[in-house]
Structure formats: C-alpha cells, structure tokens
Amino acid sequence: MLFRSNTLSQTPSNHRFEIDNTGPTASLSYSGTAPYKEATVVTITATFDDEILATTQPKIAVSSVTGGSTLTPKVMTKVYDTVYQYNYTVTSGNGTATVALSDVVDTAGNTLSQTPSNHRFEIDNTRPTASLSYSGTAPYKEATVVTITATFDDEILATTQPKIEIGRAHV
C-alpha cells in the first residue's frame, strides 16, 4: 500500500475567526433635563457598544421613588442595531429612580455585562417654598425703601421670574 503525501499549496480563504466572550455594555441618556415632574414623558435611550441580537427584545425597568410606583420590565423600541428607546411617563413621588436593563444579548450570545452608565435620574414633585426677609425694622413709614429677599428651599430655574405681590393692610 502506497501513501501519497500532499501538501497544502495555499492558505484557505476562510482561515480566521473571532472569539467574543465579552457581554455588551450600555450607556443611558434622557430627553429633557432632570429633575422630572409627574406626567412628563421622558425618552430613555440605551446605546450599546455591540450589536444586539435581532431575535431578542431588550427590556427596561424603573425603580419607584418615595411615593411613586415601579415600572416593571417593558420591551424597548429598536432604533438601530445598537440603540433602543423607551418613552417613560414619570410617576408621582420624589427621589432618585434607578433604571435597569434586561434581556440584552449581543450577536455572539453574550448578555449585558454591567450596570449601564448614567442609570439614575431625579424625580421632584415637591413645590418649592420661600421665606421672606425684610431690610430694616417694621413698622415702615411712607417712602421708605425696603429690600425684600426671598430665599427658596430648592433651586429655581434661571428662566423663572418670581414675583412678590404687596397689598395694603386695611385698618
């Protein structure tokens, strides 16, 4: 019996492959500026660093805040292979809400490997209160200039112009 030795004359065209054991990561972004108020619709966008498997449906959940309610896992809408969105309607309550993602699988079959960056946002439904202070000592005489200072217990938007209404006491 004769054996013939054949040698490979060229490298096969399909001689490389990639091994991917790293789960995708995500960063979250939000429409508008926090803190958010009840009934505001906030678009939460999850951007992944790897293409998400087409047959999976990433889900989003939002923890409750004091006096609010929890968003149980809901399917996100695919925008691109690496971008998904969800329109979240802000609940009542106050505090820091935490966003969690689930059912995220990349094209290599790896699951989400860590908590997304920027996974918390503020909900604030408490009206600010103000205390007033006055220059000088009352009672004031006619034509006296009095400086009235309003100190708020919360940050006031720069576009807001608080007004002080002064009435005349009736005797």
What features would you describe in this structure?
The chain has strands at 26-30, 41-48, 59-62, 71-75, 77-80, 83-89, 95-102, 120-123, 130-134, 148-152. The termini are far apart. The chain has 171 residues and is an all-beta fold. Strands 1-2-6-5 form a 4-stranded antiparallel beta sheet, with no helix packed on it. It is rod-shaped and about 125 Å long.
Chain-wise SSE layout:
Blueprint: E1 26-30, E2 41-48, E3 59-62, E4 71-75, E5 77-80, E6 83-89, E7 95-102, E8 120-123, E9 130-134, E10 148-152
Q: Give the DSSP E fraction (strand runs of 2 or more residues).
A: 25-35%
Order the strands across the largest sheet as they lie in space.
Answer: 1-2-6-5
Structural classification: mainly beta
List SSEs in N-to-C order.
EEEEEEEEEE
Rounded to an integer in angstroms, the radius of gyration calculated over CA atoms is 30 Å
Number of strands: 10
Helix content: under 10%
- Describe the biggest sheet? 4 strands, antiparallel
**Mean pLDDT rating:** 88
Outline, from the CA principal axes?
rod-shaped
How many helix segments?
0
Low-confidence residue ranges: none
Brief account:
By secondary structure, the chain is mainly β.
Q: Any key phrases for this structure?
A:
171 residues; mainly beta; four-stranded antiparallel sheet; 0% helix
